[in-house]
Write a structure and sequence with these properties.
This protein is an alpha/beta fold. The protein is built from 11 helices and 10 strands. The chain has helices at 2-16, 73-76, 80-90, 123-138, 155-166, 185-194, 202-217, 220-225, 229-235, 250-265, 281-300, and strands spanning 25-33, 38-46, 60-64, 97-101, 117-118, 121-122, 148-153, 173-177, 239-245, 271-275. The protein starts with a helix and ends with a helix. Residues 1-16 form the signal peptide.
C-alpha cells in the first residue's frame, strides 16, 4: 500500500510535464474530380478545438506545394503540424484549418505538375469549381474572403499569386515563398537538354513542356504591369507577402523583385523579405513561422 502511494506521488510531477489537452489533427483524404477525370488526394490540418468545440467555424489557409512534391510534403518534410501547434500555443498564430491539395508527383514518371489549366489537365478549374467548394462544405470553414488565405512555395508560390491575382475577392492574404512568378523559353530548352541522357518517354517530355510553357503564359509580373484601374483596386483588397532566399536562383530573385516593384509602382502594398537561404526544404520550413502569423493577422482584420 505504501509502495503504491509512493509511486503515485512520484508520478504526479512526471505526468504534469505532459499536455493531455486535445492536439491538432492531420488527415489525408481524396476527392474524385469530374474535371480532371481522376482522384486527387489532399491533406487537412484541423485545430486542437475542432473536435471539442463542435459549433465553432474556422478560417482556412490553402497551401500549395512545389513541383515534384505532393500534398503531404507540408507535414512529412516541412513539419507544418509542429509549427502550427507551437505558434498557436504561443499566441503568434490563431487556430485555423490548413488544406494542402495535391497537384504534383514524380515528374520522371509522367505525373502532371501544375496548378494551371492545361488542355488535358484543367487543375485551376478543378480547384475553384470542385475542390474549394467541396472542402468548405466538408469542414467547418467560415468561407468568406476575410477568413480565407492562400500560400505556397516554388511552383505553388507562383500559383498562389496567380490565383489571388485572378480571384482577389476570394483571398484576404497570399504568402508566396521562392515563387516562380514568370518563366522564359530559354530555361525550358536548357532543362530539356539536361535530361536528354535519361531517355524519357515522349509523353513525359510533352507534359513538362506544356506545364512549363504555361508559366510563360501566366506571367504574374506582366499581369501587374498591364493591370487597369479596376484591377488595381481589386488587388489592394488582398494582403501580399513575397518571401525569397538570397541563395536561390538569381533569375528568380530578379523576377520576384520585378513583381514587388511593379506592385509598388501601382501603390499596391506588398511585403517583401529576402532572407538567408536557398530553394530548399529548410527555407520553406522556416517560412512557415512568417506565413502562419501573417495569415492570422489578416484574418483578425
Amino acid at each position: 500500500m505504501f509502495y503504491t502511494l509512493l509511486m503515485a506521488l512520484v508520478a504526479i510531477p512526471v505526468l504534469a510535464q505532459f499536455d493531455f489537452t486535445p492536439q491538432s489533427k492531420v488527415e489525408t483524404k481524396s476527392i474524385k474530380s469530374e474535371v480532371l477525370g481522376a482522384e486527387r488526394s489532399y491533406t487537412v490540418l484541423l485545430p486542437k478545438s475542432y473536435e471539442t468545440n463542435t459549433d465553432k467555424k474556422y478560417p482556412v489557409l490553402y497551401l500549395l506545394h512545389g513541383s515534384g512534391f505532393t500534398d503531404n510534403v507540408w507535414f512529412e518534410r516541412l513539419h507544418l503540424k509542429d509549427v502550427m501547434d507551437l505558434l498557436v500555443s504561443s499566441g503568434e498564430a490563431s487556430e485555423m484549418i490548413v488544406v494542402t491539395p495535391n497537384a504534383g508527383g514524380n515528374i520522371l514518371e509522367g505525373a502532371w505538375n501544375t496548378y494551371y489549366d492545361i488542355l488535358e489537365w484543367k487543375y485551376e478549374t478543378f480547384f475553384f469549381t470542385e475542390f474549394l467548394p467541396y472542402i468548405e462544405k466538408e469542414y467547418r470553414i467560415i468561407g468568406d474572403k476575410s477568413h480565407r488565405a492562400i500560400g505556397g512555395f516554388s511552383m505553388g508560390g507562383g500559383a498562389s499569386v496567380w490565383y489571388a491575382q485572378h480571384y482577389p475577392e476570394m483571398f484576404s492574404a497570399v504568402y508566396a515563398m521562392s515563387s516562380t512568378l514568370r518563366y522564359k523559353q530559354e530555361l525550358i530548352d536548357m532543362q530539356l537538354d539536361m535530361v536528354k541522357g535519361l531517355q524519357l518517354q515522349d509523353f513525359i517530355i510533352d507534359r513538362y513542356r506544356k506545364t512549363s510553357t504555361k508559366l510563360i503564359e501566366n506571367d504574374c509580373v506582366k499581369f501587374i504591369e498591364e493591370a487597369d484601374e479596376a484591377t488595381e483596386s481589386r488587388l489592394r483588397s488582398t494582403a501580399w507577402f513575397i518571401d525569397f532566399g538570397d541563395d536561390d536562383h538569381y533569375v528568380g530573385l530578379e523576377w520576384n523583385t520585378d513583381f514587388v516593384m511593379a506592385m509598388r509602382k501601382l501603390n499596391i502594398p506588398c511585403e517583401y523579405r529576402v532572407r538567408n537561404g536557398g530553394h530548399d526544404l529548410e527555407f520553406w520550413h522556416s517560412g512557415l513561422y512568417l506565413c502562419l502569423p501573417f495569415a492570422s493577422r489578416n484574418f483578425a482584420k
